[in-house]
C-alpha cells in the first residue's frame, strides 16, 4: 500500500469527500456493469464472439475494481470503529482516575484523620484517668516493727515513772518513723514514675501500631488501584483483539467470496465493427482500465495465510528485540533460544554428536532485503523444523511457507529450489547457503550453545516460582496441574507422583487462605495481608523432588516414609552444608511432631496420645541421622502406635463397664424391681448392697444383729461401709470427702480440683467405700443381678482418669532454653503456666500393658 502524505486534511473532511466520491464512482461502475452484461448477451446472440470476449474481459475488470473499492471501504470503516473504541477506552480511563481523585481519595483521608483523632482522644482519657487515680490515692505508711517495739518499751518505762528514758525512746522512735516514711514515699514516687513511663511506652506502641495500620491501608488501596487498572487494561485488550479478529474474518470472507480471474491472451483479439468499437471504447473508459492485468491463483487463501503469518513474525521481531549475531555474510537475529531437550531419544537432538538442537528455537536470517524465519519444536519422534521465506515483494506468490518437517535436509533442498527459481538471472550472491542449514540458521553458533547451557543450569538450581498454578475448576486444582506447577517431568519422575499427592493434600498453614482469580491460584497471608503466587509449601516440596531425583526411592510405603523422615532431618540438620558439624538443634518441637504425624498418616488432634510415640520416634531418628545410618523401623513405630490405640480402647471399655457397675451398685438388692432405691450400705457378711430401710429391716433380729458397724471409725476395718457417688464426674464411687468444699469426690476428681491455689490446703476425709484391695468381691448377683461376672469388675481401676489423661490435648514441650511449655494440640494454644486440665503423659508400663518392655524399650534414643 502507498504511504500516506505528511500532511492530510481533517478526518471528517477526508471521510465525507471519500464517501461522496465513492458513491459517484460506484453508481457509474454499476451502470457500466449492467450495460456490459446486456452488450455481452447481444454479442453472444448475434455471433460476435470477439466483441463478446472483450466485453467479458472488461466486465471482469470492473468487478475486480468493485471488489477492491469495497475492501477499502471495509478497512476504512473498521479503522474508524477502532479509533472510536480507543477514544472511548481513553475516556473511561480518564473518568476512572477523576472518580478516584474526587471520591475515594477524600474518603481515605477522612478515615485516616478519624483514626488519628480517636487515638489522641483515647490517650488523653487514659492520661486523665491515671492523674485522677493518683490524686485520689491515700498513701498510708504503716509503722515498722522496730518503731512499735520502741513505743511499747517507752510505754513500759512511763508506767514505771522512768520519764527520761521514755522521752529518749520516743524521740528515737519518731526519727525511725520519719526515716521509714521517707523511704516509703520515695518508693511510691518511683512507682508513679514507672507507671508514667509504662503509659508513655503504651501510647508510643499504640501510635506505632496505628501508623502501621495506616501504611497497610495505603498499600492495600494502591494494590487495589493497580488491580483495577490491570483489569481495565485486560478488558480493553480483549475488546481490541475481538475487533481485529472480526475485521480479519470479514476480509477473509470477502476474499473467499470474490471472483476468480483468469488472464486472457491479448494477441487473440481482432478488430470489431465500428459501431461495436465505439460502444466498447465508452465502456472501457468508464471501467478505468489502467495498469497490467492481475493473475490470482486458486491457492489464494493459503498464500494469504502465509502472508499473515509472515507479517506477524515481522511485527514480533520489530516489537521485541532479540539477540543479534553479526556474521560476515548474513546477520542472524535470535528471537528465542528455546530449551535444551532432555528425555528419550536425546541423540536425535544433536548435530555431529556435540551441538544441541534447541526446542522452541526462533531465529530470523537477513539475506539482502529478504528474510527467512526458522522455527523448531518437539515432535513425536524427534525435532521438527519449519522455514518461512519473506521476500521484499508485493506479490503474494513470492511468500513461501514450508510445512513442519522432521527432515532438515529435505526442507533445505526445497528452500534452495525456491531461491534458485526466484533468482533466475543469477544476480544474487548465494555463497552463504553453501555452508549448510546448521550454520546458516545459527544452530552451531557458540552464543546459542552457551545460552542453552545457561538456561539448563538455571532450571536446575533456581528455587523461585517462575509460573503460576492454573486450575480449570474453581478453587480445586487437579493433580496434573500441581505436577505442572511443581515442575514434575512425566518421563523422568514417573515414580514420584506421591510427591505431588502430598503437595496437593497437605493443609495450608493456619494463617494462609487460598483464592482463585481468572483460573490462577494465589494465597493470602491473613497476618500480614500479603498475597503471593507462591504456595506456602512450594520450597519444601521442590527440594523434596530434587532429593528424590538423586536418591530414587522405590514406590513403596515403607521406602517413601523412610525417605520423608530422612529428608526432614536433613533439612533440620542442614546436612547439605559440608561445614556443618553441630547438630545440637531442638528435636522434639511442635512443628516436627506435626510433620512426623503427616508422614505417618496419623491425626494427633483426634489421637493426642500418639504424640509420645512421635516424640520417641524423633529422638530415635535424630540419633540415626547423626550417626549416618540408614533410616528404617517405620513399621515398628506403626505397630507401636497400634499398641497405644489398643490400650486406649481398653481404657474406654473399662470406663464404660465401670459406669455400668456403679449404676448396679447404686440399687438395693432387696427393693422390688419396679421401685428400686439407691443403695447406701454394703454388708461384708451378707455381701449385698442395701438401702437404709432394707438394711434396718434385715438386721433387726436373728444373727444379723451381730453384724457390727462403726460409722465414725473411718480408718478401722468394719463390717459395713458408706457408699456415695462423686459429685464431680457423677460416675465413680466417692472415696474422699472435702470438709471445706462439702463434696464427696473420687481420687481423680479430687486431685484435679485441689491441685493449685488455696484448695491445696483443704482437709479431706477418707470415706470407707468399697475397694477391691480392702474388701472382698461382692456376690455376682450384686452387679446387674448376675449379668456381670466377678472377674469383670472394674470398680477402682481408675479407667476414667487414665482415659482423661490419654485423650487430653495438653502436651509438654521444651523451648530453646529447655523451659517447659504447655501446648494444646487441638487449639494451638501455648502457655508456660500449668493448665487446669490434666496433662497428656506417656502410658506407664504397668497400666494396660503400656510399652511392656517391648521393642520400643530397646531403641537407642538420646
Strands in their spatial order, largest beta sheet: 1-2-5-6-7-8
Q: Could you tell me the mean pLDDT?
A: 74
Mind telling me the C-alpha Rg?
49 Å
CATH class of the domain at 300-458: Alpha Beta
Structure description:
The chain has 862 residues and is an alpha+beta fold. Among the domains are: 159 residues, Double Stranded RNA Binding Domain; 129 residues, no CATH class. It has 19 helices and 21 strands. A six-stranded antiparallel sheet has the order 1-2-5-6-7-8, sandwiched between helices. Strands 9, 10, 11 and 12 form a four-stranded antiparallel sheet that branches. It is elongated, with a radius of gyration of 49 Å. The N terminus and C terminus are likely disordered.
Layout of secondary structure:
Elements: H1 11-46, H2 49-136, H3 145-159, H4 163-257, H5 274-287, H6 300-319, E1 323-325, E2 332-336, E3 350-351, E4 355-356, E5 362-367, E6 370-378, E7 383-390, E8 400-401, H7 408-422, H8 437-440, H9 446-461, E9 469-470, H10 479-486, H11 497-505, E10 512-517, E11 520-525, E12 530-532, H12 538-551, H13 557-573, H14 590-599, H15 611-626, H16 634-665, E13 681-683, E14 688-690, H17 692-698, E15 720-722, E16 736-738, E17 743-745, H18 747-753, E18 764-766, H19 799-806, E19 810-814, E20 820-824, E21 830-831
Write a brief caption for the model.
This protein is of the alpha+beta class.
Notable traits:
WW_dom_sf, Double Stranded RNA Binding Domain, alpha+beta, WW_dom, zinc, four-stranded antiparallel β-sheet, zinc ion binding, 19 helices, disordered C terminus, six-stranded antiparallel β-sheet, 862 residues, 50% helix
